[in-house]
Each structure stands twice: as C-alpha cells, then as structure tokens.
C-alpha cells in the first residue's frame, strides 16, 4: 500500500505566500513597462515646426506643447497614459509628417519586448 499525507494548512500558507508574491511582482512589472512605454511615447512625439506646415499655425500655438502634455497615472492594477491636447488624436492618426505612424501605436509595437526585458529581471 502507498500512502501520502499532506498538511493542508501548511500547503495553503505556502500557496497564499506565493500568490501574494506573484501579485507584487506583477504590479512592479506593469508599472515599469508602463513607464518605459510612456518614455517611448514622449520620444516619438514630434515638436511641431510651423515652418514645415502647409497651413498657418493656430493662434496661441507653442511648439512642444504636445510633447510636454503627456501624463501617466498609476492606479492599482491599472496605468493610464494620456494626452489631452486637441490635436493629439490627429497626430496619432498620421496627421503629422514628423510622426506618420503616431506615437502610441508605434510604442505599443515594442510592448512584447519591453515586457520580456522587465519580467526577466524578476525571479522568484
């Protein structure tokens, strides 16, 4: 006869500890990857030079406003990256010859590599 005994309380304690560790590491990875994406988005955001434009710049326009207006907000299990400038969506959708592929769309293509890089540093 073969018999095995398991101390379920000990096993549950170990399980809960591992689960907490995974959640903590996941949160760290999410925040670090989001920060790297945020930095890339800013680097891909063009500074508008009215001398390159077909049309006159809008009243009150200051070059670099789009680039300076990126915001990142960290919440538990959620990160938001946004830019509330009125022309941000147009530039993202190819309106700018300086950023024909947008800023966010271009950065998101690098997400798998960024995630792999960051996750590789966390071992438990």
What does this structure look like?
With 124 residues, the chain is mainly alpha-helical. The chain has a two-stranded antiparallel sheet with strand order 1-2. α1 packs across α5. The mean pLDDT is 91.
In brief, what are we looking at here?
The chain is mainly alpha-helical. The chain has helices spanning 8-44, 65-68, 88-92, 104-108, 111-120, and strands at 70-75, 78-83. A two-stranded antiparallel ribbon has the order 1-2.
Question: Main attributes?
Answer:
about 120 residues, 5 helices, two-stranded antiparallel sheet, mainly alpha
How does the SSE layout of this entry go?
Elements (H helix, E strand, L loop, with lengths): L7 H37 L20 H4 L1 E6 L2 E6 L4 H5 L11 H5 L2 H10 L4
Antiparallel strand pairs: 1-2
Helix pairs in contact: 1-5
Order of strands in the sheet with the most strands?
1-2
β-strand amount = 5-15%
Q: Summarize model confidence as the mean pLDDT.
A: 91
Sheet with the most strands, sense and barrel status:
2 strands, antiparallel
* Bulk shape: rod-shaped
Order of helices and strands: HHEEHHH
Radius of gyration: 23 Å
Number of helices: 5
What is the helical fraction, as a range of percent? 40-55%
Q: Please count the beta strands (DSSP E, at least 2 residues each).
A: 2
User: What is the rounded distance between the termini?
Assistant: 37 Å
List unreliable stretches of 5+ residues.
Answer: none
What structural category characterises the helix and strand content?
Answer: mainly alpha
């Amino acid at each position: 006869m073969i018999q095995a005994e398991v101390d379920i309380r000990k096993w549950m304690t170990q399980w809960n500890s591992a689960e907490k560790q995974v959640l903590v590491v996941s949160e760290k990875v999410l925040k670090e990857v989001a920060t790297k994406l945020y930095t890339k988005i800013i680097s891909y955001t063009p500074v508008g030079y009215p001398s390159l434009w077909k049309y006159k710049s809008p009243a009150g326009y200051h070059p670099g406003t789009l680039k300076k207006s990126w915001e990142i907000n960290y919440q538990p299990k959620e990160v938001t990256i946004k830019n509330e400038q009125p022309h941000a969506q147009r530039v993202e959708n190819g309106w700018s010859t300086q950023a024909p592929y947008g800023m966010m769309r271009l950065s998101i293509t690098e997400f798998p590599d960024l995630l792999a890089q960051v996750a590789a540093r966390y071992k438990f």
